[in-house]
Amino acid sequence: MADLSNHEAVYATDEYGRPFIILREQGKKTRSHGIEAIKSHILAARTVANIVRTSLGPRGLDKILISPDGEITVTNDGATILGQMEVEHQIAKLLVQLSKSQDDEIGDGTTGVVVLAGALLEQSQELLDRGLHPMRIADGFERACSVAVDHLDSISDRVEYTNDNKQNLFKAAMTSLGSKIVSKAQEKFAEIAVDAVLTVADMERRDVPFDLIKVDGK
């Protein structure tokens, strides 16, 4: 067999005389590390965020997803889009898990959390280019989060409601349905959602066990 040391590819034959080509690939691969590895991870995560960015908000665009067996899904829901994507990169998979966690815990904002994470990573890359250490950047984000939460607490209002006066809850549900595919019938769906939540809500613990709410379909 020919020597691969000075060649990118080598022509060879097997014991039956059948030709094949040996590509020198493994020898060319190098493991990235340090800042370059971090930037590579940021790029992968930002790519995922950019995919769902255009589906955010009332004017967001729907995505057409086609599964391997030919099933077509039209949606602008971040969790649905990311859940059906075949993401291989481990860091990009974290954004998929982030969207799923948001969907399981809150039930809304699945696109927003991914877009926000992508924006923070974009700013992180600029800070890395300025020479800041990744740990200092992460510490800065922790402090900024604390400041943001304190500010939100200072400007927040308590929304009162009763089983007889559900108008405020109805308005909140209407807002969250404004960007969904059911927006043309959002009043009806908002009423259904509010009634379902109040039926299973634990007012003392301020918790809603969403797993008790089922959607029956044909």
Give a short overview.
With 218 residues, the protein is mainly alpha-helical. The chain is built from 7 helices and 4 strands; from the N terminus they run ββαββαααααα.
Describe the structure.
By secondary structure, the protein is mainly alpha-helical. 50% of the residues lie in helices and 8% in strands. The protein is built from seven helices and four strands; from the N terminus they run E-E-H-E-E-H-H-H-H-H-H. It has a two-stranded antiparallel ribbon with strand order 1-2. The protein has a two-stranded antiparallel sheet with strand order 3-4. A hairpin with a 5-residue loop joins strand 1 and strand 2. Helix 1 runs antiparallel to helix 4 and helix 3 packs antiparallel against helix 4 (110-129). The relative contact order is 0.08.
Chart the SSEs and their pairings.
Layout: E1 9-13, E2 19-23, H1 35-53, E3 63-66, E4 72-75, H2 78-84, H3 90-105, H4 110-129, H5 134-155, H6 167-176, H7 186-200
Helix pairs in contact: 1-3, 1-4, 2-3, 3-4, 6-7
List its salient traits.
7 helices; 218 residues; 4 strands; mainly alpha; 50% helix; two-stranded antiparallel sheet; extended; two-stranded antiparallel ribbon
CA-based gyration radius: 25 Å
The major beta sheet can be summarized as: 2 strands, antiparallel
Order of helices and strands: EEHEEHHHHHH
Shape: extended
Poorly predicted ranges: none
Number of strands: 4
State the helical fraction.
Answer: 40-55%
Q: Which structural category fits the helices and strands?
A: mainly alpha
Report the portion of residues in β strands: 5-15%
Please count the helical segments: 7
Mean pLDDT: 80
Task: Please report the distance between the alpha carbons of the first and last residues.
Answer: 63 Å
Strand order of the largest sheet: 1-2
